[in-house]
Design a protein that fits this description.
This protein is α+β, with helices and mostly antiparallel strands. It folds into two domains: 3-73, Arc Repressor Mutant, subunit A (Orthogonal Bundle), CATH 1.10.10; 94-176, Alpha-Beta Barrel (ADP-ribosylation fold). It has helices spanning 3-18, 36-43, 47-56, 101-110, 126-134, 146-151, and strands at 34-35, 62-64, 70-73, 94-100, 120-122, 139-145, 157-158, 164-166, 174-176. A hairpin with a 5-residue loop joins β2 (62-64) and β3 (70-73). α1 (3-18) crosses α3. It is globular, with a radius of gyration of 17 Å. It catalyses: 2'-phospho-[ligated tRNA] + NAD(+) = mature tRNA + ADP-alpha-D-ribose 1'',2''-cyclic phosphate + nicotinamide.
């Protein structure tokens, strides 16, 4: 499949599995799973195209269940009642978040908030945070003091593709990475 078709399918899949399943009459279960046959029918794609989209997605945004009859997004949902059933996990001592200058004052004042999503997304690598921040301009990397957050009772989860998730990162746990 050509790269542009792969990108288009990935974007549609991402939107409908994370934000707007109802726009195409798709039903997600409480854990975010959608029936593969329904996806194929509603997006007018083949199973081979879907499998290629899942396997070649550089961010590993999607996963099949063990039976390969269901598919879901690994994280990033704006749908409030989706529970990915991710257990709480102890993260590395430092996690990172990529942003840009225009958001920095607000972040340093209010902390990192999930905005329209369920969780704040963090990375255990500077390189990934750099890539995320660079999507909107010149990236600024923030360090997150996870030890302090855990000591204060905050929880972390990690998605199957390695994205660290938390409800909120108060500004006192943030510093600029130099």
């Amino acid at each position: 499949m050509d790269n542009q078709r792969l990108i288009n399918i990935s974007k549609k899949l991402s939107y409908h599995l994370r934000h707007g399943p109802e726009k195409i009459g798709l039903k997600l279960d409480k854990n975010g799973w959608a029936n593969v046959e329904a996806i194929l029918s509603k997006l007018h794609i083949t199973k081979t195209e879907l499998e290629e989209c899942v396997s070649k997605n550089n961010k590993q945004r999607f996963a099949f269940d063990e039976s390969r009859q269901k598919i879901r997004a690994n994280q990033g949902h704006s749908i409030k009642d989706v529970d990915l059933e991710l257990p709480t996990t102890i993260p590395p001592k430092i996690l990172y978040h990529g942003t840009v200058e225009r958001f920095l004052d607000s972040i340093m004042s209010d902390g990192l908030r999930p905005m329209s999503r369920q969780h704040v997304h963090l990375s255990d690598s500077i390189e990934t945070a750099q890539k995320v921040g660079s999507r909107r301009g010149n990236a600024i990397i923030l360090k997150v003091d996870t030890v302090g957050m855990i000591e204060d009772g905050m929880e972390f989860r990690v998605s199957s593709n390695g994205v660290w998730l938390t409800a909120h990162v108060p500004s006192k746990y943030l510093s600029k990475y130099m």
